[in-house]
Amino acid sequence: MLNKTLWKLGVGLFAATLASATLAATPTSVVIDVHLISEKGVGKSIGTVRASETKNGFLLLDFNLSDELPPGGHGMHIHENGNCGPAQKNNETVAGLTAGGHYDPLKTGKHEGPSGKGHLGDLPILYVEVDEDGAQEVTHSLVAPRLRLADILGRAIIIHAGSDNFSDEPASLGGGGARIACGVIPTK
């Protein structure tokens, strides 16, 4: 009886230690360095995005980007792979293609935006505005209600040239077009 009790206590302590180690290994926030990208590769840094979780568990993205992005709306997504390099598609070199497709762990194959039931990696639109003096800076926050920080670690965030209509019609993947900026999301 004593051996059985000690064994249960040992298993309980092991489980508590493992849970503690797992929690300690998961960061509470990460800083993502964002770079311009082209068919030639990864270019200069344009700032950072801090990813963290809100008290409700939602993913919060705090942007601090320079004036390198064109004004207007830009589609944004979490992509499968933590790589921002170019790759070949249909005999053309495509910027950021090594990041893979939109993060879609449930294999929905649908682009329905951050509140839809499609790709989990669909993010809200990033707006770049120019102030009255012509200065341009992106320093605002967005919430991705279906994502948690653990979901995005080791993946990439891609910013597209155009906006996103959160549909696959009339153009696939929201019609955002070319990938113009990318950041590899650290794992810790």
Could you name the ranges where pLDDT drops below 50 across 5 or more consecutive residues? 2-24
**How many individual domains?**
1
Mean pLDDT: 84
By DSSP (H or I, 4+ residues per run), the number of helices equals 2
**Oligomeric category:** single chain
Total count of strands = 11
CATH class: Mainly Beta
CATH architecture: Sandwich
Q: Could you estimate the helical fraction of the residues in percent?
A: 10-25%
CATH superfamily: Superoxide dismutase, copper/zinc binding domain
Q: Give the terminus-to-terminus CA distance.
A: 44 Å
Rounded to the nearest angstrom, the radius of gyration is: 20 Å
Largest sheet, if any?
7 strands, antiparallel
Task: Write down the secondary-structure element order.
Answer: HEEEEEEEEEHEE
Strand content: 25-35%
Helix/strand/pairing category: alpha+beta
Per CATH, what is the topology? Answer: Immunoglobulin-like
Shape annotation: globular
Strand arrangement within the widest β-sheet reads 5-10-11-1-2-3-9
Task: Characterize the structure shown.
With 188 residues, the chain is an alpha+beta fold. Helix content is 15%, strand content 32%. It has helices at residues 2-25, 149-152; strands spanning 29-38, 41-53, 59-65, 72-74, 76-79, 87-89, 92-94, 126-128, 141-144, 156-160, 179-184. It is globular.
